[in-house]
C-alpha cells in the first residue's frame, strides 16, 4: 500500500476528509468518539500523525475589570476556556493594568519561545497591541478592530443588531428614537452608534441631537446605583422626548429604566427601551428587557478555533469574522399608533 492519505482514512471510518483533518489536528467540531476512532484507524493504517497531542500554550490578555465583570466578559472568557479544553490548550489569563498598557510592558506570561498563541479580549490601545504583534506570535483579537494592525479579528455583527432594533421600533410605531452610549469607549460601542446614525437616515427617521447621549460613564458592579446622570437629562415634558430608546448595552438600559421608574415614568407604558448584549440580568428585570443578543461564549470559542487555524496556517490571509446577532423580544417595547 502506498502513502496513506486523509481520504483513505475517511473512507475506512465513514466520515468526510475534512472531519479526519480536524480530528488529526486537534481542532474542535469532532466528537470524542469519532476522534478516537479516526486516531486509532490512522495509526493502524500507518499514517504519521504529527503533533496530534501536542499541548499548546496560549496567553489571554484583557483589562483588569474584565476578570471581575460577571455579565458580558465572563461569558466570553468561559467560551475561551471551553474551547481551549477541547483543543488541548493550556491557558494563562493575564489582566493588563493601565500602567502596564501605557508603558507597553509585555506581560511575563508571554514567552516568545514557549507561547504558541495570544488572544486579546476587548479594547486595549493600539500601541500596546502593536508591541504584542511585533513578537510574531500568532494573534487573534476579540471585540476590537484597528485598520493599523493586521490580525485575525472576532467581533459581533453590531450593525445588524442596531438595524434590527430600529426596524422593530418602527414596526411598533415609534418615530422618535433616542440613543445612549459613549463614543470614547470600546470598538463595539462606536460601531453601534455609527450604525444608529446610518440606519436612522436609511429609514428616514429624523435624529434629534438633544437625545443622542454619548457621555455616559456607568462602569463597575455598582452601575445601577448611579442615577444622577439620567436624572439630570430626563425631561419627559419636552414634546420631542423620544418614545423609544436604544442603549449601547444592557447595563445602560437597566440603569435608565431604573431612573425612569424613580421619576414615576413607566417602561414601556411611557417610554420603550431596547438594550444590547442580552446579559442575564435583563431577562429578570421589570419589565424584562428587549435586547440584541450577542453570542458571547461563541466569541470566545471562535477566537480559539481561529487561533488554532492561524498557528497551523501562518501564511494564510487574515480573517475579519463577524458573528451574527439577533433580536430578543421581551416586555420593554410598547406598540403605539
Automatic annotation (TrEMBL):
Quote the protein name from its UniProt record: Transcriptional regulator, LacI family
Q: Does the keyword Iron apply?
A: no
Matching entries from PROSITE patterns are given as:
HTH_LACI_1, HTH_LACI_2
Read off the InterPro entries from this record.
Answer: HTH_LacI, LacI/GalR-like_sensor, Lambda_DNA-bd_dom_sf, Peripla_BP_I
* Domain HTH lacI-type intervals: 4-58
Q: Pfam families, from UniProt?
A: LacI (PF00356), Peripla_BP_3 (PF13377)
- Keyword flag Nucleus: no
Query: From which residue to which does the signal peptide run?
Result: none
Amino acid at each position: 500500500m502506498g502513502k496513506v492519505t486523509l481520504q483513505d482514512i475517511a473512507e475506512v471510518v465513514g466520515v468526510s476528509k475534512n472531519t479526519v483533518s480536524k480530528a488529526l489536528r486537534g481542532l474542535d467540531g469532532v466528537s470524542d468518539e469519532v476522534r478516537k476512532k479516526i486516531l486509532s484507524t490512522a495509526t493502524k493504517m500507518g499514517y504519521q500523525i504529527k503533533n496530534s497531542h501536542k499541548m499548546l500554550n496560549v496567553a489571554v490578555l484583557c483589562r483588569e475589570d474584565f476578570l471581575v465583570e460577571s455579565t458580558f466578559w465572563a461569558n466570553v472568557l468561559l467560551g475561551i476556556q471551553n474551547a481551549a479544553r477541547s483543543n488541548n490548550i493550556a491557558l494563562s489569563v493575564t489582566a493588563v493594568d493601565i500602567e502596564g498598557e501605557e508603558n507597553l510592558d509585555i506581560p511575563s506570561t508571554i514567552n516568545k519561545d514557549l507561547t504558541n498563541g495570544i488572544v486579546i479580549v476587548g479594547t486595549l490601545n493600539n500601541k500596546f497591541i502593536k508591541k504584542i504583534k511585533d513578537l510574531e506570535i500568532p494573534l487573534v483579537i476579540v471585540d476590537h478592530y484597528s485598520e493599523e494592525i493586521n490580525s485575525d479579528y472576532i467581533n459581533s455583527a453590531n450593525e445588524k443588531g442596531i438595524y434590527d432594533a430600529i426596524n422593530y421600533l418602527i414596526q411598533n410605531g415609534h418615530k422618535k428614537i433616542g440613543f445612549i452610549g459613549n463614543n470614547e469607549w470600546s470598538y463595539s460601542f462606536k460601531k453601534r452608534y455609527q450604525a444608529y446614525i446610518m440606519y436612522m437616515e436609511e429609514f428616514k427617521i429624523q435624529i434629534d441631537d438633544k437625545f443622542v447621549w454619548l457621555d455616559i460613564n456607568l462602569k463597575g458592579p455598582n452601575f445601577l446605583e448611579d442615577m444622577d446622570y439620567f436624572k439630570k437629562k430626563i425631561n419627559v415634558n419636552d414634546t420631542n422626548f423620544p418614545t423609544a430608546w436604544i442603549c449601547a448595552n444592557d447595563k445602560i438600559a437597566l440603569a435608565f429604566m431604573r431612573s425612569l421608574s424613580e421619576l414615576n415614568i413607566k417602561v414601556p407604558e411611557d417610554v420603550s427601551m431596547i438594550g444590547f448584549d442580552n446579559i442575564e440580568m435583563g431577562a429578570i428585570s421589570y419589565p424584562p428587557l428587549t435586547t440584541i443578543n450577542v453570542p458571547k461564549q461563541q466569541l470566545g470559542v471562535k477566537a480559539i478555533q481561529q487561533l488554532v487555524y492561524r498557528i497551523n496556517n501562518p501564511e494564510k490571509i487574515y480573517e475579519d469574522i463577524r458573528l451574527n446577532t439577533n433580536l430578543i423580544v421581551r416586555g420593554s417595547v410598547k406598540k403605539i399608533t
